[in-house]
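Handout, section B. The chain below has 152 residues.
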Amino acid sequence: MDLPLNETFPAWQLEAIHGEQVPQIEDFAGKPLLILLFNLGCAGCKGRAIPYANRVVYEQGEHIQVLGIHSNFKGALYTPEELQEAEKEFYMRFPLFQDADLNSTFHKFKAGGTPHWWLADKNGRLVYTIFGSDPNKGLLKLDYKIAEVLAE
């Protein structure tokens, strides 16, 4: 089960890893928003999803916002310091927050696992969601959807 399309996101519960104020969904209004929910214990997240999100920021950063949410829905717990180190190691070009209570946003957004992607249009309506990071299926479809949203 996934979030319904053409509706706004439910409120998320995120925790800062740098002590900054946690943004609300409304703070991203006016530009499309791509959300990546990932886990550092997930090989597909580290090998494909994070690099893909970085590429989106690099190539389309003036036109789309990208937000990373680290979720501990299973596996090892990561401290804010470990997440900060991962930001450096993977050259994350997007803001990163941690899912509160280990996985509350994971469940509210009805994630299928990690990586999971959600794409909202400039009005904050969900237009696409996909679980996975297969380059020839998931990420290619995501590329097409991003292009459609940016063309609107």
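Note. The mean pLDDT is 93. Compare this with the example in section A.
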